[in-house]
């Protein structure tokens, strides 16, 4: 049985209170997710983006509210993007440059040692 979930948006006093959307992950790009208003309806997503994203795998159907906590973004950003563009692309956080962080730590340690002597 194939179930199609349509986006549901309810407004309360001009504010969006609830949005049902589908979340897909990319096989090509680690930690990259695509939120869309309707399950399996990728028509609002640009073809170039879909090509880079690869074959999307459904991860979840989310009932997003303004107070919903999301790992990498906030619900208001997802709401706004889906309403304006029909999708929201969540990219992974930038990688941590451990060498840069270590050098910064070393400089801080040198400064602390100079203050003591």
Topology:
Elements: E1 9-12, E2 15-25, E3 33-36, H1 47-53, E4 57-65, H2 75-85, E5 87-90, H3 98-116
Antiparallel strand pairs: 1-2, 2-3, 2-4, 3-5
Question: Could you walk me through the main structural features you see in this protein, from its secondary elements to its overall organization?
Answer:
The protein is of the alpha+beta class and 117 residues long. It has a single domain, classed as NE1680-like fold. It is built from three helices and five strands; from the N terminus they run βββαβαβα. It has helices at 47-53, 75-85, 98-116; strands at residues 9-12, 15-25, 33-36, 57-65, 87-90. Strands 1, 2, 3, 4 and 5 form a five-stranded antiparallel β-sheet that branches. The longest helix is centred in the C-terminal third of the chain and has 19 residues, at 98-116. Mean pLDDT is 81; it is low at 1-14.
Shape: elongated
CATH architecture: Roll
What is the structural class? alpha+beta
Q: Any idea how many domains?
A: 1
Summarize the structure.
The protein has 3 helices and 5 strands. The N and C termini lie far apart (75 Å).
